[in-house]
Design a protein that fits this description.
Blueprint (H helix, E strand, L loop, with lengths): L2 E2 L8 E11 L5 E11 L8 E4 L4 E7 L2 E2 L3 E3 L2 E4 L6 E9 L9 E5 L2 E5 L19 E8 L4 E4 L2 E6 L2 E10 L6 E4 L2 E8 L5 E8 L8 H18 L7 E7 L6 E2 L4 E5 L12 H16 L8 E2 L5 H19 L2 H20 L11 E2 L8 H34 L3 E2 L1 H12 L8 H4 L5 E9 L2 E9 L14 E8 L5 E10 L3 E6 L7 E4 L8 E3 L4 H10 L3 H22 L5 H12 L5 H8 L4 H10 L6 H18 L1 H10 L10 H21 L2 H9 L3 H13 L4 H11 L3 H14 L5 H9 L9 H13 L1 H4 L5 H13 L4 H7 L11 H15 L6 H11 L2
Parallel strand pairs: 2-12, 18-19, 19-21, 22-24, 25-31
Antiparallel strand pairs: 1-23, 2-3, 3-9, 4-8, 5-6, 5-9, 7-8, 10-11, 12-15, 13-16, 14-15, 17-18, 20-21, 25-26, 26-29, 27-28, 27-30
Helix pairs in contact: 1-2, 2-3, 3-4, 3-5, 4-5, 4-9, 5-6, 8-9, 8-10, 9-13, 11-15, 12-13, 13-15, 14-15, 15-17, 16-17, 17-19, 18-19, 19-20, 19-21, 23-25, 24-26, 25-26
The structure holds arginine and zinc ion (ZN).
């Protein structure tokens, strides 16, 4: 059944108070609810309906009288009194057999919950919709040392604990954790003087992996006070690490639950990239306390209201904590790799979708990352001051509300006086806009003509012009900036902008900082790109120029069999050697476009990508860079060594990243000598794993792989890396066989989402291996998805995005993929999650 945004109606009742009692038992937990309902003055009428799924009803009462509710689709209906009443129910559920990891489930003997988006209905009968907000009191009974829920602790005794959350919240923010856990404690005093107890709860062996997460939490709390004026609002903030989790983490009020991969870190077991990701996810979940919890979403179509904004906030935070330039480049890399890819195929949907079958399928790069980009554009259009006035108004006007995108845009209109009706199209129109560029220079006047168009996407054949902020700066031919960054507002299909008083034709730096999530179609000569790489004052565009140059070269190598362009090699060498540049930036500049990115680019220019040709060209270019830049790279490898104890900060991480980039090239020449010795001497996971990756890349990792496994077999998160690296780096023709072998490894615990994703996600990202012409990888992935679907529909459905670009490939590959997708579609009892995905991907 499809749910439509247009069909929104308020709930018949309001909930004044919720009391829940849990009697925990693995196979038969009792949940006793007592809920105070009152008629909702905004209701348009209708039957009283409560959601409920997989619940065994023991009994139900209204105002103390037994009632027998009527079964309805996805829940129950019941005749209720006209005025306020108390609903009581006792249900039985089975956490132990809940492998979908939604609702109340067990992970290695520990009870935990995941309720967003619609998991609470698997715990008890309830109006499980975000616009129904209520204070919750919770009692947990169970013989486990740690019993946690939302809010503040109220009382505790032997075998029970009570929690009370004073802040009205929707059911999706409910959480419960019970287990044999230990805590890494700390405290934080808010700026108005509230003393907050902080804890990260883990299994005993993980206690040494909490310090970084705790530090990130305290920095996030401080940052939100300083930058957004937002303070924490309870006496305690708990974070729990869970090994079996479908997503990254969850912002449950006062009790955030994290995938252990998103919180646990130590120098020996986590890489720089892991530390960075943990810092941003801790911040993200913490920031949700205001953007998500205090102000939530009216319905799930408004998901970007909390997610786009919270991603935007965590990106700002990471930029402030580390480097804005590096942050922006990494965010754009991720946006292009995931969101542009999504926008360019059958799964394209607006930032605010208008219909869905299963909402879990819409926790997407479009809702999250493009949702954040839309906020970045708004901020650029109204300015920093306008943005901060609008946000203050948002928090004061909507605190306690379940709000909409209309509410969000209205605060910007009211705070700044700007009409946002055209801008609003960013929320409803799917697809990545293209901007074509024409330039002319005449008599001291430079004219830039920009035209926009957005390709058709499913259900949206025709597109209207958007408001696109295009940040532009001009450089003189000798490399000086003659016009500093100015934001052009492109609102029409085609528009010209002029700059006068110039003494020579300038070189334009367009879309600085990637000021809008668009594809800039600009035919630029290699020399102009190299010029911008050398001289642009905007760090993003400086990097972008190098990236575009490398892309042009690779496309010519792929399509015309051209040789690696020496101009690119020289430009890269200049950047690599430029000591005025941050090592992290230089590492990014030495990174080549990904194979999937190249495939997308080819497809967009009307060609059919051949994954093997792309792979070969990238290998050939890497080899050429290694040969040409050999001395520079070898110097860098030596100079970038970090001495002293490992620290995960941006400076040291940047040096390690540049050193690793050098090692990747050097290993193509030195037979792995440096990588082998780095592998043996590394005292941190970044360098150990980096060396292992280089050895795998050149086919010399056998000994190191065995040693790595021996050293880390007791550490799940590290073993995920061992699995993921092998499937991600398997040689194209052998990928399916290699991954098949990994699935036969006793360590392949496929019901654990992290392990499944490490292996199958690795294969999907191994572009040439995944698209092996035999179809073996398609079949292997499909076999495993068919197996996983009845166990864990969410993770299955998400992994199906591996096929979202299938229409870009040749007829043979399309035929093979279609066969597999149809095989999956025909699987009896296929989940709602997976059937929706496969239907959309096939295009029916
Ligand atoms: N709200 C969480 C976050 O962004 C994501 C949880 C989504 N979970 C799900 N099963 N759809 O941090
Ligand atoms: Zn979020």
């Amino acid at each position: 059944r499809t749910i439509h945004l247009a069909d929104y109606t308020p709930f018949t009742h309001v909930v004044e108070q919720v009391h829940l009692t849990f009697r925990l038992a693995p196979g038969a937990t009792r949940v006793i609810s007592k809920i105070a309902f009152a008629p909702n003055p905004d209701s348009k009428g209708g039957a009283f309906f409560l959601h409920g799924e997989d619940l065994k009803l023991i009994h139900a009462r209204i105002d103390g009288e037994s009632v027998i509710p009527n079964a309805a689709e996805g829940g129950i209906t019941c005749d209720v009194p006209e005025g306020p009443f108390t609903w009581e129910a006792e249900v039985e559920i089975s956490p132990q057999t809940n492998t979908a990891l939604e609702g109340l489930y067990m992970s290695n003997g520990m009870y935990c919950t995941q309720c967003e988006a619609e998991g609470f209905r698997k715990i008890t009968f309830y109006p499980d919709r975000p616009d129904v907000m209520a204070p919750f009191d919770v009692r947990i009974e169970g013989e486990l040392p740690v019993l946690l829920s939302n809010g503040n602790p109220a009382a505790r005794g032997d075998g029970w604990a009570e929690w009370s959350d004073p802040w009205p919240k929707p059911a999706y923010l409910f959480a419960l954790v019970a287990g044999d856990l230990v805590n890494h404690p700390d405290r934080f005093t808010t700026r108005s003087g509230r003393d907050v107890e902080l804890n990260i709860w883990v299994r005993e062996p993980d206690l040494g992996k909490c310090a970084f997460g705790m530090d990130a939490l305290k920095r996030s709390m401080k940052w939100d006070e300083e930058v957004y004026g937002r303070e924490y609002d309870l006496d305690i903030f708990n974070i729990v690490a869970v090994d079996d989790f479908n997503m990254g983490a969850m912002e449950n009020k006062g009790l955030n639950i994290f995938n252990s991969s998103a919180v646990l870190a130590s120098p020996e077991t986590a890489t720089d990239a892991n530390f960075e990701r943990i810092e941003s996810i801790i911040a993200h979940e913490y920031f949700h306390n205001w953007t998500g919890n205090r102000i939530t979403c009216r319905d799930w179509f408004q998901l970007c209201l909390k997610e786009g904004l919270t991603v935007f906030r965590d990106q700002q935070f990471s930029g402030d904590e580390r480097s804005h330039a590096v942050q922006r480049i990494n965010d754009v890399l991720a946006l292009r790799a995931r969101q542009f890819r999504e926008d360019n195929g059958p799964l394209a949907h607006p930032v605010r979708p208008e219909s869905f079958v299963e909402i879990n399928n819409f926790y997407t790069a479009t809702v999250y990352e493009k949702g954040a980009e839309v906020i970045g554009m708004l901020k650029r259009l109204v300015g920093d001051e306008g943005y901060s006035k609008a946000l203050d108004l948002y928090f004061s006007r909507h605190d306690g509300d379940a709000a909409t995108i209309e509410d969000w845009l209205k605060v910007f209109e009211d705070a700044t006086g700007r009409d946002l009706s055209q801008f609003k199209r960013w929320y409803s129109q799917a697809g990545t806009p293209r901007i074509a560029v024409q330039e002319s220079f005449d008599n001291g006047t430079y004219t830039l003509t920009l035209s926009q168009s957005t390709p058709p996407t499913p259900g949206q054949p025709d597109k209207e012009p958007l408001v696109i902020p295009v940040a532009v700066g001009l450089l003189s031919p000798n490399g000086d900036e003659v016009v500093p960054t100015r934001v052009l507002e492109l609102t029409e299909a085609e528009q010209s902008f002029t700059f006068d008083g110039l003494s020579a034709k300038p070189v334009a730096s367009i879309l600085r900082s990637f000021s809008a999530p668009v594809v800039l179609e600009r035919d630029q000569s290699a020399s102009e790109r190299a010029f911008l790489l050398a001289h642009d004052t905007d760090p993003f565009n400086k990097w972008e120029a190098g990236r575009a140059l490398a892309k042009d070269v690779l496309i010519r190598m792929i399509t015309e069999g051209a040789a690696p362009d020496p101009a690119l090699l020289t430009a890269l060498e200049n950047v690599a050697r430029d000591e005025t540049l941050d090592p992290a930036f230089r590492a990014l500049a030495l990174g080549l476009p990904g194979q999937d990115d190249l495939a997308q680019t080819l497809y967009q220019s009307g060609r059919t990508p051949d994954p093997l040709a792309i792979y070969d060209a990238v290998q050939q270019l890497r080899k050429a860079i290694a040969e040409q830049l050999g001395t520079t790279l070898s110097d860098l490898y030596d100079d970038m060594a970090v001495h002293g104890p490992y620290r995960p900060d941006a400076g040291d991480a940047g040096q390690r990243a540049l050193r690793q980039a050098a090692l990747g090239f050097l290993s193509l020449l030195d037979g792995g000598v440096r990588a082998q010795s780095q592998y043996e001497t590394a005292d941190n996971m970044t360098e150990q794993l980096g060396a292992l990756a280089c050895l795998l890349d050149i086919g010399k990792a056998e000994t190191a792989l065995a040693a790595f496994r021996h050293q880390w077999q007791e550490d799940r998160l590290v073993m995920d890396k061992w699995f993921g690296l092998q499937s991600g780096l398997a040689a194209p023709a052998k990928a399916a066989a290699a991954v098949h072998r990994l699935t036969e490894d006793p360590g392949f615990d496929w019901k654990n989402p992290n392990r499944f994703r490490a292996v199958m996600g690795g294969l999907a990202m191994n572009a040439a291996g995944f698209h092996d012409p035999s179809g073996a990888s398609y079949a292997l992935l499909t076999d495993w998805l068919i197996l996983l679907d009845p166990v864990n529909p969410q993770t299955t459905a998400r992994m199906l995005t591996a096929f979202e670009t299938w229409k870009h490939y040749d007829a043979d590959r399309q035929g093979l993929i279609r066969e597999n997708l149809e095989r999956l579609a025909a699987t009896p009892g296929l989940s709602r999650d997976s059937s929706e995905m496969v239907g959309r991907i096939l295009g029916d």
